[in-house]
Amino acid sequence: MKILGIGVDIVENIRIHKSIKNINFIKRVFSSSEILLAKKITNKKSYYSKRFAAKEAFSKAIGIGFRDNLNFKDITIINDKLGKPSFVVTDKIKVIVKKQFKISSFDFFLSISDEKKYSIAYVILQKK
Predict the structure, then answer these.
(1) Residue 54: how many CA atoms within 13 Å on its side-chain side?
(2) pLDDT at 1 over 90
(3) At residue 123, does pLDDT exceed 90?
């Protein structure tokens, strides 16, 4: 197992809180499944802030940022029954990672945390 990339991002929650008042921001950054789940969440500021940081950290871990046809909506964060976050690895993500690293088998690891003022996400991309 070899680490191919790491990414970290921290976001000021008030910035995202202001941004999510604009529905166009939400539609541009978050996937439809993330938006649907947010409707069930009481603390939307925390929910969206953590996911925004995770998407930024993801783009840093693969080393291209948001270019080469990678958009915020291409990255979806889900949680298992116990709350552990992970990414939905779509065919588009597979193609981007394969092109960038010349590999076909990989894993992403995601850790997200927040406090009152900030949310942070850490991503590791590992070759299987």
Answers:
(1) 28
(2) no
(3) yes
